[in-house]
Design a protein that fits this description.
The structure holds 2 protein chains of 2 kinds. By secondary structure, chain A is α+β, with helices and mostly antiparallel strands. Chain A has 13 helices and 18 strands. Chain A folds into 3 domains: 1-183 and 366-396, Uridine Diphospho-n-acetylenolpyruvylglucosamine Reductase, domain 3, CATH 3.30.465; 186-275, Alpha-Beta Plaits, CATH 3.30.70; 278-359, Alpha-Beta Plaits, CATH 3.30.70. The longest helix of chain A has 14 residues, at 10-23. By secondary structure, chain B is of the alpha+beta class. The chains are: A alpha+beta, B alpha+beta.
Chain lengths: 396, 498
């Protein structure tokens, strides 16, 4: 009896999950399915399809607060806030191009479940930094509310934040409240050319440690997109301020060379491409997403290049490394060893066939006490293990 | 003792005090264990001074291994533990228990690592909030969250309460500025979350720990993000004939795409109290006074000062002053920063409340508050983090007059219920603690609270860490774990399937 259940209300979700809990029938929790290829494949007979749970409950630009149903397409939400001169400043990336799907897909619930962010992560945070409240149904089948609909709130545990990045394994979000921000008046990129990885990341870190309010800091090495290597700093805000800060960076980074300036539209295209891992789109070799301390990025890449044919570029001032394994092998052991060698962080396998993702640790393995705590948390939300079983960790 | 009741102490544990004392002395040598009543007095209350309770024993460990052993001992022997930082909680988060060990983390006072390149600092939890800034300011850096107790409050306590401050609309709360933690569970297990890298490698337990009010674990190390100080800061002091005008001005500033570094509002009683105290030059003939601080690159700040001035004038501002020097900016702030002691001058005691409302509800809430003031027969002065809707009503009372503390607490509870009624929340930055514990049911349903307590069960199934705080009713974990399921056919045949 395979079924796709398409609820239209939180009450429907509660009934569906309640039934699944009673019958111990695992559910695959799905929005538009745009991120199904992320994480481990879920073994579930039934699908809980939330794409029908859509709509804006309330949006008050002056309060900086937006409440929407979890199945609302993220593209619609971004359009709505853009029409009001605002943005989701965590800049959620679009996995479509990298995973061989159409761009512009996905729901708000999916963005939160994967805790997406973009280059602005280093200044404005990730999805988890912009969630204010949530209505959700736990694996027990009970609707609960947590957080609130105001921008400042510490009433009770911060469950909405804890549910971000849980890939639908703890609860099914039905309604979410997000903090929105004013959209910057304009933007520009400060571009240095021809730097090696070490110098590039040194320049990025120096800029991030300045008062220039940089909102994107990336390095595309020479072998990545065919250019001679570009080191990029994004400035956003009021035009007069962007011009002023560009000059600040010219002085601060003079020793790294003369900078070019990309104007707003060209700059925006480039950052979108960096955000969405366009340099590695259109292929099928394994891609990893690695997060380490920014200064350790080049060391990690150097360690790996000594062992394998790998292509890499840096975001987050050097701390986020997108790795493409050009030889088609996984290299999971080597990559995780390198992460440990540079002082820790995490490596996530983001592109690989389902059969591969079933058989390796897609997410960074955790030390035993932390893994046990995470498992206990899962059991408290989903005692029967019916929500996206195995999506993050085998057997959980 | 006042209205809020703590769980009945376990007499069997109190009877074992001697045995518990020697066990703790075996773990933490010398002066690290305090059991003399006179010395324990220093720990009997926190920033919510109306409530006092001597703990069973006070222990001040110095190493993570000691913390781990103390907690494991308490876990094995069913002894409750109340963690404490600097003891500045305004909601009673560190109020001791008669049958519980008070675990002070203030010997963990070292800055362990300053990493300017990665903009990260690793500190022990007893380092003060301002201590972090002091450690990095020689290079122009600072730690952004700035609760008003920052000179005294500890970073460990900031994690527990998810502390905010004047600048959090632009720079975020504690939770947005913490990168990593080391903590000890009640079982004694040591767990590390995050680090100098971004995002977690599994469930966001770092996010869950922040603001958990000492109920989930004891923090032993913290990694925070530091920022370069803004190039400059300037402020406007703006007076309005009505609070509606002030509220509209705030909304218009944000609608113009401007997020000020700080945006504070005061009502007439607060303005007068502050002006009488520090003579900051505040106008007395206004109903609302707004301080708007713009920080960032010099050119941007100058530009935005002009924009905000125009917006203020368009909203019937009767007074506008712009700081032309650092000294003048500090004068603008002097009254606001002294608002609490200023109110302390006009009233023997005051209760500082902390609700958040949607900003548009401000005029309505202030009007209703005036009615409540009459109903309870007590005065109230308001300071308000205007950008994020976080309201701090100061209720004036005299603890020496019989019944006034009760009346003040009842007034406070009515205000917080009003905040919830208009779409807001019970606490914006002070935490629930014991103070707002019994109001949780006004904001959350039974199932909401049960799901929160199930989280507690994943961390501390015996309810030994800081019990009696946050939750009005303590459910045993076995009871919370029960599922009431009804087996049957696939439900809701009306739901379309494919």
């Amino acid at each position: 009896m395979d079924a796709t259940l398409k609820p239209r209300s939180a009450r429907d979700v509660e009934q569906a999950v309640g039934w699944a809990a009673a019958e111990e029938q695992p559910l695959e929790i799905r929005g538009q399915g745009s991120k199904r290829a992320l994480g481990r494949p879920v073994q579930a007979a039934h699908v809980l399809d939330l794409s029908g749970l859509t709509g804006v409950d309330s949006y008050e630009p002056a309060e900086l607060v937006l409440t929407v149903k979890a199945g609302t397409p993220i593209a619609e939400v971004e359009q709505l806030v853009d029409d009001n001169g605002q943005e989701l400043s965590f800049e959620p990336m679009d996995y479509g191009p990298l995973l061989g799907k159409d761009p512009g897909q996905g729901t708000v619930g999916g963005v939160l479940a994967a805790n997406l962010s973009g280059p602005r992560r280093i200044k404005a945070g990730a999805a988890r930094d912009h969630i204010l409240g949530m209505e959700a149904v736990s694996g027990r089948g009970g609707i609960f509310n947590s957080g609130g609909k105001v921008v400042k709130n510490v009433t009770g545990y911060d469950l909405p934040r804890a549910l971000c990045g849980s890939y639908g394994t703890l609860a099914v979000a039905t309604t979410v409240t997000l903090k929105v921000n004013p959209k910057p008046e304009t933007s520009a990129s400060f571009v240095l050319s021809g730097l090696g990885d070490d110098d590039a990341v040194a320049a990025l870190c120096r800029a991030m440690g300045s008062s220039a309010e940089v909102s994107g800091a990336a390095h595309l090495p020479a072998d990545v997109d065919g250019t001679p290597g570009r080191t990029l700093l994004r400035l956003e805000g009021f035009e007069t301020s962007v011009d002023y800060r560009f000059k600040t960076l010219e002085t601060l980074l003079a020793e790294f060379g003369t900078a070019d300036r990309l104007a707003a539209s060209e700059s925006e295209d480039l950052w979108r491409s960096i955000r969405d891992v366009r340099p590695f789109a259109g292929a099928s070799v394994p891609v990893w997403r690695v997060s380490v301390a920014p200064t350790q990025g080049p060391r990690l890449v150097a360690l790996l290049k000594a062992k394998m044919d790998v292509s890499a570029y840096y975001d987050w001032s050097g701390g986020l490394i997108w790795l493409s394994c050009a030889d088609g092998d996984l290299h999971d052991g080597d990559i995780r060893e390198a992460v440990a060698d540079v002082g820790g962080g995490h490596a996530t396998l983001v592109r690989a066939d389902a059969s591969v993702r079933s058989n390796v640790a897609v997410f960074q393995p955790q030390p035993a006490p932390l893994a046990a705590l995470s498992r206990r948390l899962k059991e408290q939300f989903d005692p029967k293990g019916i929500l996206n079983p195995g999506r993050m960790v085998s057997g959980v | 003792m006042t209205a809020i009741a703590m769980p009945a102490p376990d007499q069997a544990v109190i009877a074992r005090r001697k045995e518990i004392l020697s066990a703790l002395q075996a773990i933490v040598p010398g002066e690290g264990v305090i059991h003399d009543e006179r010395e324990m007095r220093a720990y009997e209350t926190d920033g919510l001074t109306a409530y006092r309770q001597l703990p069973l024993i006070v222990v001040l460990p110095e190493t993570v291994a000691q913390v781990s052993k103390v907690l494991k001992y308490c876990y094995d022997n069913d002894v409750k533990v109340v963690p404490r930082g600097a003891g500045t909680s305004l909601s009673g988060g560190a109020l001791p228990l008669e049958d519980g060990v008070l675990l002070s983390m203030m010997k963990f006072n070292q800055v362990l690592d300053i990493d300017f390149d990665n903009r990260a600092v690793v500190v022990q939890p007893g380092v003060t909030n301002l201590g972090i800034t002091r450690a990095v300011e020689h290079q122009g850096f600072y730690y952004a969250p700035d609760p008003s107790s920052q000179i005294a409050c500890s970073i460990g306590g900031n994690i527990a309460e998810n502390s905010g401050g004047v600048h959090c609309l632009k720079y975020g709360l504690t939770t947005n500025n913490v990168l990593g933690l080391e903590m000890v569970l009640i079982t004694g297990e040591v767990i590390r979350l995050g680090g100098k890298h971004l995002d977690s490698e599994g469930y966001d337990l770092l996010g869950l720990m922040t603001g958990s009010e000492g109920l989930l674990g004891v923090v032993t190390e913290v990694t925070v993000r530091i920022l370069q100080k803004p190039e400059t800061a300037r402020a406007l002091l703006i007076g309005f004939p009505t609070s509606e005008d002030g509220g509209r001005c705030v909304a218009d500033i944000i609608a113009a795409g401007i997020i000020p570094g700080g945006m504070e509002m005061m009502d007439r009683p607060a303005i007068h109290a502050a002006e009488d105290f520090v003579h900051a030059g505040y106008p007395r003939d206004v109903e609302a006074l707004l301080i708007v601080e713009l920080d960032g690159p010099e050119r941007e700040v100058d530009y935005l000062i002009g924009r905000v001035e125009d917006i203020a004038k368009a909203n019937q501002a009767s007074h506008v002053r712009i700081s032309e020097s650092e000294e003048e900016r500090m004068t603008f702030w002097a009254g606001r920063k002294a608002a609490f002691p200023a109110v302390g001058r006009i009233s023997p005691d005051y209760l500082c409340m902390d609700g958040t409302i949607p900003r548009k509800e401000l005029p309505k809430v202030l009007a209703r508050m005036r009615d409540l003031s009459e109903k309870h027969g007590l005065g109230v002065a308001n300071v308000f983090h205007a950008g994020d809707g976080n309201l701090h009503p100061l209720i004036l009372y005299d603890a020496n007059k019989p019944g006034e503390l009760d009346a003040a607490e009842a007034f406070g509870a009515d205000i917080l219920r009003l905040c919830v009624e208009v779409g807001g929340v019970l606490t914006g930055e002070h935490g629930v603690g014991i103070e707002k514990r019994d109001l949780m049911t006004d904001m959350f349903s039974d199932e909401d609270l049960k799901q929160q307590q199930r989280v507690k069960c994943a961390f501390d199934e015996k309810h030994l860490l800081n019990p009696g705080k946050v939750f009005p009713v303590l459910h045993r974990c076995a009871e919370l774990g029960k599922m009431h399921v009804h087996k049957g056919k696939l439900p809701f045949p009306d739901i379309p399937r494919f």
